[in-house]
């Protein structure tokens, strides 16, 4: 794994189709925050693209670990126009029943990764598969913000804890 300061020019790294950029932000103290990017090659069944919500759910549950996470985590998967994964970042990390999603930070990171599309995904550690009203509201708020900068949301996948099930907001008409 390679860690880079985000202040560096990441264009060459982002445009390398064999690399996915995963961004991190670490607060070291009240006055200093380090932004880093980890590069790693991820594939989905040997491909760099997602065909359906099952692909996304399997990837997020197994590769990212949402299936077994004790706390709620929300992620954005950034895709290019061919639905190939070009970047991944954590939107938020909350307690066992909540996490907030910042529209501003999500838009900023999606633009840095040259995303054309985003798939949102988060877990419900308690095992509930269906979205809460807050999940739907937050997703629509993010969708509205991202649409203003030309980035669409393809889906929002919920991964319940310790289950092989998942919930696609798109498939269920929630977005």
Count of the domains: 1
Oligomer: single chain
CATH class: Alpha Beta
Order of helices and strands: EHEEHEEHEHEE
Low-confidence parts: 1-19
Going by helix content, strand content and strand pairing, the class is alpha+beta
Largest sheet: 8 strands, mixed
Strand content: 25-35%
Strand order across the largest sheet: 1-3-2-5-4-6-7-8
Give average pLDDT, whole number. 77
CATH level-4 homologous superfamily: Cytidine Deaminase, domain 2
How would you describe the overall organization of this protein?
The chain has 175 residues and is of the alpha+beta class. It has one domain (45-168): 3-Layer(aba) Sandwich (Cytidine Deaminase, domain 2). The chain is built from 4 helices and 8 strands, in the order E-H-E-E-H-E-E-H-E-H-E-E. An 8-stranded mixed sheet has the order 1-3-2-5-4-6-7-8, with helices on both faces. Helix 3 packs across helix 4. The chain starts with a strand and ends in a 7-residue tail after the last strand.
């Amino acid at each position: 794994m390679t860690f880079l300061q985000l202040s560096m020019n990441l264009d060459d790294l982002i445009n390398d189709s064999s690399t996915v950029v995963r961004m991190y932000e670490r607060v070291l103290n009240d006055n200093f925050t380090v932004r880093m990017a980890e590069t790693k090659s991820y594939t989905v069944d040997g491909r760099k693209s997602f065909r359906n919500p099952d692909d996304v759910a399997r990837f997020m549950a197994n590769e990212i670990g949402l299936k077994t996470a004790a706390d709620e985590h929300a992620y954005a998967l950034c895709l290019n126009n061919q639905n190939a994964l070009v970047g991944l970042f954590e939107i938020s990390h909350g307690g066992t029943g909540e996490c907030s999603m910042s529209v501003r930070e999500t838009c900023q990171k999606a633009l840095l990764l040259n995303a054309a599309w985003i798939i949102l995904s988060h877990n419900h550690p308690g095992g509930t598969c269906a979205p809460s009203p807050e999940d739907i509201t937050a997703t629509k708020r993010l969708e509205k913000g991202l649409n203003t900068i030309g980035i669409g949301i393809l889906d929002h996948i919920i991964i319940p804890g310790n289950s092989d099930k998942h919930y696609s907001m798109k498939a269920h008409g929630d977005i």
